[in-house]
Design brief:
The protein is α/β, with parallel strands linked by helices and 414 residues long. It has 11 helices and 14 strands. Strand 9, helix 3 and strand 10 form a beta-alpha-beta unit. Helix 4 packs across helix 5. The radius of gyration is 22 Å and the shape is globular. The C terminus is likely disordered.
Length: 414
Amino acid sequence: MSASAKWAVGGVIAGGAAAGLLGAGSSALALYFARRVITPVRVRDENQEVLAVIRAADGLQIILAATEDTTVEGTYGLFFDGGRGHARIGRILSYSPAERTVLREVEAVYSGDLTKARRGYWSGASHPDPASIGLPAEDVEVDVEGGVAPAWLVRAAVPSDIWAIMVHGRGASRQECLRALRPARALGMTSLVVSYRNDGLAPSAPDGRYGLGSTEWRDVEAAISFAVANGAREVVLFGWSMGGAICLQTADLSRHHHLIRAMVLDAPVIDWVNVLAHHAQLNRIPSAVGKYGQLMMGHRLGRRLTGLAAPVDLKPMDWVSRAVELRTPTLILHSVDDEYVPYGPSASIAEKNPEMVTFESFQNARHTKEWNVDPERWEGLVTAWLRRQLAPRTNPGSRPRKPLPAVPDANAPE
């Protein structure tokens, strides 16, 4: 049977009247949409124009084309020269809507020659590694399927049996997680900042495709095993964007789920169907075509076209519908103007399961940049909430714990 015939049969089996209605052109668009979602992007699009770099008396300044990202206050990363260059960009010095330009302070250049940059990409990863924020780290390797995944290990000032395991988002890197290191250290936790399949550091999955959390959680489970082997008795999971979906799957499916004391999720994917419908709309793809793309990802015959080794079932990853099943205390921080992952499902899961889920909204932060816009509030919320979650348990069978530090670690840099 030819590939096209097999897909036609698959469409019928799955309720494929849609296949006949959409026609060949729509089917091709649906396949393109599905493959875009599950295929890792190896080279980021440098879509941010750099107009000039100025040497001022107090350091460098940069003139950028004004965009929805560059005109928001805060501290960000600018990657250039194919990702080899990295600068930390700070406050807005001036903004000209008429000229569509913005002048910002350059706080640091970590690599590359910024003065030669003409284009780059904007990022919430403002620092390159733990050392850049004054925290000592060790390079370690976590055993995962297919090899080893590099990770940064940032030990607590005093040996701790509660570890923070930090999981970056889709298309991002572990640098994204550095924003949570100081709160974790202030609470006396050792941090493990991990990589996972298809992120460019860990081994690729055999099919080279994202599972949207349905497969990646196994690498986080391996990270928990590493933590336990090195003295951890409990863990706190931190996840950004798709990293949030991965953490939710880990809490649901891992044999270590009982060791997960709490989760902190930043702009998490709570419901993939909602996210994919949002992106279909953003890309002006008809709703029926977007749904057909989801069908391709989820059906066993569709994998022959998408390249998936196994179907991606989105239903178990709909945590709005499964809200009451979530039994791990969870803090969600999400900007109401997130352009990539709508905040609605985050608010809904908290409304449906207030016993377990705390929701904190941000403004103007866009996607996963809540810390960048307001680091003091982000760190304050995370620290206060986790302090309550990590307080010694009072039930008779619990193991006594040393009290958490009342103030941030004095050895941590300002």
